[in-house]
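Lesson 9: reading folded outputs for more than one chain in a single document. The general rule is that every protein is listed as its sequence immediately followed by its structure tokens, and records are never interleaved. Here is the first one.
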Amino acid sequence: MPASTTLRDVIGLPQELPRLGESALIMIDFQNTYRTGVMRLEGAEEAVAAGARLLAAARAAGAPVVHVVNDGGEGTPYDIRAEIGEISPEVAPAEGEKVVVKQFPDAFHATDLADTLKDLGVGVGLGGDLVIAGFMTHMCVLFTAQGAFNRGYRPTVVAEATATRPLAAPDGSVLPSDVLRDASLTTVSDLFGTVARTVDELLAATPVS
């Protein structure tokens, strides 16, 4: 069966990847939470390594960077006051990079992320490109991309810099993590934004002058 036409095609939204140096990078929940213990994700180490490459490229390109962390409260795997909830050292914020604390999957909901982007000179519509990476693909990455789209930004998710976990499907079968990840990214690319498969694919949209 041939692939269906995407909603982006129907509406006439652009499919081109943005230039990294003309975007803001949103690093979502790159916390130790997902590298150990009950929430450890398949592919987390590879995603962190890709995230580190993406972060280095964004800094080199002069792109503004915002880090987002999920605070689930003391004693949880998302406790930002404990080592388990800290941002992994490979992608830790540099001096001056803003950290936004959230408690919902959409990093825009009940946070100052939109105000932070405005302060960084990132507006909605023209000039509103956001590059998104992090954890988990099916949850905070997907819903932040949706939230960005709903607010007039143009999000792009870097697939290899995300990961998720296997989950039980409604019929009782187990949905493998790679299938859930691909389905989530397909949801993004159907309407909410574009998807770069790799960091290198995104960087190819930013030719060296």
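And here is the second record, again sequence then tokens.
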Amino acid sequence: MQNSIITRIVLSAAVMLLILSCASLSSSGVGRIKRYVVESERLPAVFDGYTFAFVSDIHYPSLFTRGRLGRLVNKLRKEKLSMLLLGGDYVTDDSYINELFDSLSMVQPADGIFAVIGNHEKRNTEKISASMSKFGIKLLLDEAVPIVEDGSAIALFGVEDSFVYDTLAARRVKALSDSVYTILLCHTPDYAERTSSTADLVLSGHTHGGQVTLFGLYTPVKNSVYGSRFLRGLNHTSQGTTVITTNGVGTSRKKLRFCVPSEVVIVTLRKLN
């Protein structure tokens, strides 16, 4: 009898710890800051140590309230960021557009803020574009920008519609990556696999990491034709391209996260000799 009581207490404590870890919220305004180091022989030496942040699927405000947004901006301002990249799906209501981009513009990374649109911007792309322009954020619509440091450059390419695969944009990415280290910013991770992208690094969101999992063992909704393959974290395509899929910041459909913490990604590039 005593052993049975002790077992129930231990199991209850373990469940509570799992729940707390799944629902944690840090002082940064999101569940966690997820850091990656990405190495490449193709990276120009001057970019060794180049660090930037990637934020996606804000769905502001959803669960990502004004207070959390302020804490996140303050946290990112303290990081030594060269640029901030935004991955789409920005607001739940158009009345929040200016508030969101005004706040994000205060991060002020050295090389600027760049963005793509997500599937939720099909309805309000013009409003999003105008607001970004107002606050100094560069929206990339199937275009590339050079990031230049001390005479060397890498390329950043932003995909306008990452749910269309046989496009001129995909061919341009392939041509670009033949000659220069290329970062591909696209809303869904499926794009990299379905276009056989040869970019050096792909940054995506859309999946929300599943948003809800059963203690990481089962994820009902994956939002990817590849199931769990690119659901979250760092993975590789069939061509060997590195894909980082973020859990994102906000929530959609239901204001709920369980065992999938909201996150902001910070990437440091390293020259592999």
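What the second record shows: Confidence is low (pLDDT under 50) at residues 13-25.
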